[in-house]
Amino acid sequence: MSLALRAQLLLFLISLSSRMGLSRYIEVRSRFCFVNPFTVMVMCVCVCVWFVGCLDMLATDGFFTFVASRPQLACASFIIAEPSEVISLELSDVSIDCSAGDFIKMFDGWVLKGEKFPSSRDHQLPLHQRYTDYCSSPAPGSTSRSSQNVAMIFFRIQSPDSRFTLAVKKLHNPFPCNIMSQSPEGSFTMVIPHQRRNCSFSIIYPVEIRLTELSLGQAKSNELSPQRQVWSGCSGSGDYVELLGGNGVDTSKMFPVADLCFSLSGLAQMKIGCDNSVVRLVSSGNYINRVSFQYRLLEHNELPKTRENSLDNFCSVE
């Protein structure tokens, strides 16, 4: 199996909490203490700021500061939240030279190896509106709010001691859409209530996916429809679910392995031996569409054998 993308993504995603201590340190800005009247104990609270590196992953709320010790020409921080959350970003204490070519840009989603998540066909905003450029903003600070549980910030700083602080806050999202999973196993339900949009759930592992419930606006068939056999034409129905596999994060460039355009109340399962496995729900806006599923990491003996230059082989389906 080609592991190029998965290795790069896992570098960010494996053991998020423990990894944080390896790339940043903490500074206590202020500290105050008080007596708890119920326990008669002294309790202290500190206001802390994390210092981040040129390439980092942020998975918690807080204030994160970058200070350049030397020119940094290509830096990024990837921010991820729980599936039912979106991310609010705010820049402050910015000291960079925009006129000299420095920049800080926030992005609604992730960009990896030139591919964007969510893809342009799944995100409700045009691509140019997903970027927030600090140097082009008329206000002294910049804010951005993601449409899903991932966001990122790009920056280039050429002068030592230039700096900025990024405030990260997570907010509840009642109808999660376009989710990047932090875990190789779990369960989830996607609901699109009378909205014309596409929602995907991306799992950056080869997994077995079990659909436990599927409620769509139209019923056409009772079978899974593997791409290798007969393509049932669900894409013309306006309301359907498709399972995708591939070695990138852009769903528009991934390999369709099955589609479903019928209501389902029993189990249907499929193994997708790809670096990235996706459940994608497409809705016409005429109905309340819902899909529930479980997923688990494939064991080593379940993975397909490697065959060079063959996406169809390393993304084998069972």
From TrEMBL:
Do you know which InterPro entries this protein is assigned to?
A: CRF-bd (IPR008435), CRF-BP_C (IPR056178), CRF-BP_N (IPR056177), Sperma_CUB_dom_sf (IPR035914)
Keywords of this protein's UniProt record, alphabetized?
A: Disulfide bond, Glycoprotein, Membrane, Secreted, Signal, Transmembrane, Transmembrane helix
What is a single molecular function from GO for this protein?
corticotropin-releasing hormone binding
Say if the entry is tagged with keyword Signal. Answer: yes
- The secretion signal range is 1-23
What does the UniProt entry say about where the protein is found? Secreted
Give the Corticotropin-releasing factor binding protein N-terminal domain ranges: 53-171
Please report the name of this protein according to its UniProt entry: Corticotropin-releasing factor-binding protein
Organism of derivation: Seriola lalandi dorsalis
**Quick one: which gene encodes this?**
CRHBP
